[in-house]
Each structure stands twice: as structure tokens, then as C-alpha cells.
Amino acid sequence: MSALDQWDFAVLHLALDFLGHHADTELLKARERGNRRKQLSMLVLLEQIGTVRTKLRSMVSP
């Protein structure tokens, strides 16, 4: 893996961490307010983040 590939992976990892943190925060707020639609949206987003992480790992793993 070249340095650029490693850099790209690191940036994607940080972006997914940030997006996951945002989704967790919004999910907590939605639960406090009883907003079921937003809760479902954030749960779907967290699932999608997990899928992307899995695909990235499979691309990087030997």
C-alpha cells in the first residue's frame, strides 16, 4: 500500500468516526425527544457506517 493509499484510508476512517459520533449524538437527542423517525434514520445511518467500515477493512486486509 502506498503512502497515499494509507493517507486516504486514515482520512476516511476519521470521517467515519466523525459521522458516527454525530449520528450517536443525534440518536440520543431523538430518543430524549421521542422522535421515532429521527431515531430510525440515525440507526440506519449507523448501520451504513458499519457496512462502509467493513468494506474498507476488506479492501485493505491482505
Summarize the structure.
This protein has 62 residues and is mainly alpha-helical.
Write the layout of secondary structure elements.
Layout: H1 3-33, H2 36-60
Helix pairs in contact: 1-2
Tally the structural domains: 1
Radius of gyration: 15 Å
Beta strand %? under 5%
Assign the structural class, choosing from mainly alpha, mainly beta, alpha/beta, alpha+beta, or little secondary structure: mainly alpha
Q: What number is the mean pLDDT? A: 91
Strand and helix order: HH
- Main sheet specs: none
Distance between the termini: 10 Å
> Quick one: overall form?
elongated
Residues in helix, %:
over 70%
Catalogue the unreliable spans.
none
The total count of helices amounts to 2
The number of distinct β-strands equals 0
Structural account:
Helix 1 (3-33) packs antiparallel against helix 2. The model has no long low-confidence stretch (mean pLDDT 91). The protein has helices at 3-33, 36-60. The radius of gyration is 15 Å and the shape is elongated. It is an all-alpha fold and 62 residues long. Helix content is 90%, strand content 0%. It has one domain (13-60).
